[in-house]
Structure formats: C-alpha cells, structure tokens
Specification:
Elements lengths: L1 H26 L3 H73 L4 E6 L4 E4 L1 H7 L3 H4 L14 H12 L4 E8 L5 E12 L5 E10 L1 H15 L9 H13 L7 E8 L1 H8 L1 H18 L5 E6 L2 E6 L4 H17 L1 E4 L2 E4 L1 E8 L7 H17 L4 E4 L5 H7 L1 H13 L3 E10 L7 E9 L5 E2 L1 H10 L3 H18 L1 H6 L3 E5 L1 H5 L3 H11 L7 E6 H6 L1 H12 L4 E7 L16 E4 L1 H4 L6 H16 L3 E4 L5 H10 L3 E2 L8 E2 H6 L10
Parallel strand pairs: 11-12, 14-16, 16-17, 17-18, 18-19, 19-20, 20-21
Antiparallel strand pairs: 1-2, 1-5, 3-4, 4-5, 6-8, 6-11, 7-8, 9-10, 13-14, 13-21, 13-22, 14-15
C-alpha cells in the first residue's frame, strides 16, 4: 500500500514539473535555459523524494525494532506468567497435600485467631473430642480448653508465648460427652509480615493409655502386683521415713509368715496359691486401721507397720489377724485347705536404730514363733537377741551350710518353649533343697534367707559348678538344646572374683559358652548397673547369652534398657497370668514385648498356665513361653534318664 501511494506521488511530481516547465517556456525562458532549469528542478525534486524515502525507511526500521521489542516483551511476560502459574499450581498441590496430611494426622489440630475464636479443626480433633467442625467453628477455644486452665495458668501460658517459645505440657481435656482424658498439648503462634500475632496453632494427642500405663508402672514400683499391697521396698522406705522423724511416738512392726501355704502351692499349683494370697490379703486389710500399712514382703510373708501404736494395741490387732488366718478356709477344685501363721512383732521405739535392725528383729521374732509351735505371736525384746538369732538367722544359715556341705541341693529344669516352631527349646535350671526325710524344699523357703544373710552367692556358685559339670557329662543334651538359663543374684555380680569364677568354669569344663544364658533380675541389674554392664559385656564376647528376669516388676523407665546388652526380656509373670481378663496387664505385656523387639531382644513370658494365655501371647508375637501350662519343673537327672527333653511340644 505504501509502495502504491509512493508511485502516484512520483507521477504527480513529474506532471507538476512538466506543467511548470510548460508555463515557464511560454513566458520567460528559452529552450536552453529551460533545460537547465529542468535539470535543477528535477535534481531538487529527486533529492526531496530520496530524503522522503530515507525517512520512511528509518521509520519503518524503528517500527520493526519496536515490534520486535514488544514481541520479546510479550514472550518474556508469557514466560513469567507461565512460571507463576506453575508455581501457583505447585503451591496449590502442596497446599492440598498439606491439608491432606493435617486431616489425616494422628494429632488433633485446632487453629484460632488472635482472640481465640476457632477457625479450623481437623478430623482427628472431632474424633477425639466429639465436637464436629460445624459445632465448634466460630466458637471460642475456651469451650474446649484444658481443665487445668485458670487465670494464673493462663498468665503463665501467655508469658511463655511472649518469649517466642512454643508451650508444651501434659493436660486433661474434657470431651463433649463429659469424659476426661489425658493429652500432650503443644501451642504455638503464627505472625504476619509485621510480626503481629494473627493466629494460634494448637495440637494435642490423646495419651490416656500411655498415662494409665505409666501410673501402673509407678504403682508396680511400690506395690505387689498380685495382691495390690505395698511391696518390701516401699515397706522399708516407710519405716526409714518414720525413723528419720523426731517424734517419740511408738510404732510397731509385725511380720506374718503363713504356715501350710506350701501344701496349696504344691498340690494345686501357683494359680491356686495366688488366689489364696489375694483372698487372705483382702481379709487382713479389713482388720487393720486405715493408717496402718500392710505389705506383702514376698512369697507367703506379710508385714504390717502400725504407726502411732503401742505394743499392747498392736498385739491385740495381731491376735485378731491370727484368728482370721486360722479360721480362713480356702477351697479349690473341691478341696478345702486351712492355714496357720507365725507372727513376730517388735516395737520400733524400744529397739534398734536402723531399718535393717528392725526388720531382722521382726524376722527373728517370727522364726521364734514358728519354732515354738506355730500359730502364735512372739514379741521381740532386746534381751532375746541371742535366742532370736539362734532361732531365726542361725537356723537357716545352718540349714543352707549343711546342704552345701552334704550336697543336699539338686537341680531342676523347666522348659522354655518357642512360640514358633523355627526355634529350639531351652531350659531354666532351678535349685531345690532336700530335707532330712528326702522331701524337696522349694526355693521360696530358703532363697529369701540366703539373700538376707549373704549366702546367695555361694548358692549361685553351686548352681554354676553343678550345671557346667552336668553339661560336660551329657554332651548329647548340650548339643540338642538351644541353651540353659542360670539365675544370678545381684550380690554375686558385685563380688570381685565372680567373673573369673564363671570364666574358669567355662574353660575347665570345656563348655560351649553359647549354650549358657545367665538370668539377672531387673532390680539387681538396675541396682548394680555399671557392674552388670561390665559383667554382661565381658561374657558376651565369649558367646554367653543374657536375660533380664522379672522385667516390669521394678520398672520406672525403659531408658536404662539401652545400656544393658541383654538378649532376652523375661516378662514378669504377674503381668502375664491375668492378661485374659485384665486389659491393663495385656497392654503391659504388649508394650514390653514391642519395646524388647525394637531393641533387638527376644521376649519370654513367664507364668503361662493355660492354653488361653498361650494363644494371646501367640497373637502378641511373644517369642518364648514358660510356666506350668508349658511344662512343670522336673529333676534334671530325671529329664535325661527318661529322655523327656524331646517331649515338650511347641504350640
């Protein structure tokens, strides 16, 4: 179009020049002058036209450049828009993922504005509290605030947030239906670009089960699991507490040792014995005052601390307790049993200055009552010290020493069977004492005395020496079992030469160390942690295995387990035997089993008395089981002679 217009402009210019020349020719110039003028005009015209075209080309070039600049700008803007769109899509995707994570979180999440009005809750919040988002959005968070909140607590909470810290604590919440639950709460704030707090973010997790488990663990640290009574450790602590006081008030300590209890245990089993102890404990609790402290000291022994009580009044109460025991009739499987009791009482005001002295005096008085014919009460007096020691301490010291000298001890074995069939069985070796008539005295009768009077280490050494000798003489048995378990006391661990004694035994009897597993009670391991770690670590280098026995009985924390390189956790039978009916015991066993597996340990459940317990343990994934429902303890020699160590089946 521009070219066409320029062509017409050129023709018009030529015509105009010709018209001018025609006019000038007729008026002023001759032909020659006119030719010169024509050349001049034509030159001027061509110069003008050339300039004009140059200007057009320049403008056209400028337009081309501007167009290219605009096109580049458009491309650049399209790229920016594309990047921003992609970023927005990414952010939107992340937002959706984040929203999904929040909705599927195991924690309850609540977002409020700066005034505390609820703007968002996730599904878990509704699941835990019972409030739907429709019910709670727009309401103030005080409607679901923890029960602990008061003006003072709220002030402390806000002070923490002002310091720029997140606030965390265990609190109790109330659900919509009125139920309360324990939760671990964390609250932090969200600020805008100017640093102003615009929102609060609250997350909390229902820890009711963990809290209940923790309370039960704390309870078991001070109480007997079977009867619910205070245990020996707490009993001694309470006596220590009284002794540390400055009051001159008289207190009395009483020891009760049941007579004929062994008959029930031996003829009917541990389940019957446990039920007897529960029933009798309940009767005894109803007789003493609320301020008095009844404790199960172990086995069939009980203790009572009469606070602010004269010896005369304590004697009157214990007489009533003796009547209750004598009149108590225990029925099991159509049989009825009667019990007796030997009771020793001692005045705290009158006697020794330490807890150990008081317990020894009460124990000695109890033995005096038993030796005097049972079913009676013996009051301890300072002048009876020689007699008390002769009747109490020396009696058991002599029996144990005599059994060691005359080799009246023997070894029994109880099978520990794998739950799955891909593992070999092994055995726990147990010590028994033979009496003068050839009867067998169970360990519960003499081991407490052996521990109390520092004879337990001699018994440990006897068991180790005789176990090693037995394995050396029966290589076929040693070869076909996984290993044998041998119990060790805390006292043995602390003896300087005990480790050397064990290593010398392994060497002298040429025992494969991988066939030996030493069991150490949880309490002994905790009390002598550094010594236990050294002992375990040294023998593990030779191949010995280790088990932590009665795990859970003195448990306050799982933390120390990391420092004990044991191979097996033996779950305390007090938790195992009631797992069918007690959900808390079931949760305890489940937790201990899981913790053990996480730490790379195998687990063994004790006190497995029936098939129902076995099936539950199987479902929980426990590795090994032990108890009367699996196999009763048998004399070790009888096990070999009758080839019975191959006859215990897995389930």
């Amino acid at each position: 179009m521009v070219i066409i217009k320029n062509k017409y402009l050129l023709i018009a210019g030529i015509l105009m020049i010709l018209s001018i020349l025609a006019f000038l020719k007729n008026q002023y110039f001759n032909e020659k002058e006119l030719s010169v003028l024509l050349l001049l005009i034509t030159a001027v015209y061509l110069i003008s036209i050339t300039y004009y075209f140059l200007m057009l080309l320049q403008k056209r070039h400028a337009l081309v450049l501007e167009r290219k600049r605009l096109e580049d700008k458009i491309i650049e803007n399209e790229k920016v828009i594309s990047e921003k769109t992609q970023k927005l899509e990414t952010e939107e995707k992340r937002l959706k993922e984040f929203s999904m994570i929040i909705e599927q979180s195991h924690d309850a999440i609540m977002v409020t504005d700066a005034k505390g009005e609820i703007e968002y809750v996730n599904e878990k919040f509704s699941e835990i509290t019972g409030y739907t988002s429709f019910e709670i959005l727009g309401k103030n968070s005080r409607q679901v605030q923890p029960l602990w909140v008061s003006k003072e607590n709220e002030t402390q909470f806000l002070e923490v947030l002002k310091k720029g810290c997140a606030w965390r604590s265990e609190v109790t919440y109330k659900k919509k239906n009125g139920e309360t639950y324990w939760a671990f709460e964390s609250i932090s704030f969200i600020k805008d670009a100017n640093g102003k707090v615009t929102h609060f973010l609250s997350t909390h997790r229902d820890i009711s089960q963990e809290h209940e488990l923790s309370e039960k663990l704390s309870f078991h640290a001070t109480h007997d699991v079977l009867t619910g009574l205070v245990n020996r450790r707490e009993f001694e602590r309470r006596i220590e507490q009284l002794l540390s006081g400055t009051s001159d008030t008289e207190h009395v300590v009483c020891f009760i040792d049941l007579d004929q209890f062994k008959i029930v245990n031996d003829t009917c089993g541990h389940v019957a014995g446990d039920e007897l102890l529960r029933q009798l404990s309940s009767l005894l609790m109803k007789t003493i005052r609320k301020r008095d402290l009844l404790a199960r000291l172990g086995g069939d022994e009980f203790g009572i601390l009469f606070e602010n009580c004269s010896l005369k009044n304590a004697h009157r109460v214990t007489s009533s307790l003796l009547d209750i025991v004598q009149n108590f009739q225990f029925s099991w499987d159509g049989r009825t049993f009667k019990l007796g009791a030997s009771i020793g009482i001692v005045s705290v005001k009158e006697t020794m200055y330490t807890t150990t002295d008081i317990l020894k005096a009460a124990d000695a008085a109890c033995y005096m009552a038993k030796d005097a014919g049972r079913n009676r009460i013996q009051v301890y007096h300072a002048e009876d010290l020689d007699l008390a020691q002769r009747q109490g301490e020396v009696q058991w010291v002599e029996k144990i020493n005599e059994a060691l000298d005359k080799n009246l001890f023997c070894l029994y074995a109880q099978v520990i069977s794998p739950v799955k069939k891909d593992s070999d069985k092994h055995y726990e070796l147990l010590i028994r004492m033979s009496d003068k008539n050839g009867g067998i005295i169970p360990p519960g009768a003499f081991l407490p005395a052996a521990e109390r009077y520092n004879l337990i280490s001699r018994l440990d050494r006897w068991v180790i020496s005789n176990a090693f000798e037995f394995l050396a003489n029966n290589p076929d048995f040693q070869e076909r079992i996984n290993f044998c378990s041998i119990n060790l006391s805390g006292l043995s661990l602390t003896e300087n030469d005990f480790l050397k004694f064990v290593m010398a035994g392994l060497r002298d009897f040429e025992i494969n160390a991988e066939k030996i597993c030493f069991e150490i009670t949880e309490t002994a391991a905790i009390s002598n942690l550094n010594v236990a770690v050294k002992f375990i670590s040294t023998l593990k280098k030779f191949g010995c295995k280790f088990a932590l026995d009665d795990f859970g009985s003195g448990l306050s924390s799982f933390g120390y387990l990391k420092n004990l390189p044991v191979d097996y956790l033996k779950i305390d039978g007090m938790f195992v035997k009631d797992i069918v009916d007690d959900p808390i015991d079931l949760a305890m066993v489940k937790s201990i089993n899981e913790i053990g597996h996480v730490m790379g340990m195998k687990t063994i459940a004790e006190f497995v008395e029936n098939d129902e317990i076995k099936e539950i343990l199987n479902r929980l994934g426990v590795d090994y089981v032990q108890g009367y429902g699996i196999g009763k303890p048998l004399p070790l020699n009888e096990l070999i002679e009758n080839n019975r160590f191959d006859n215990v089946c897995n389930f």
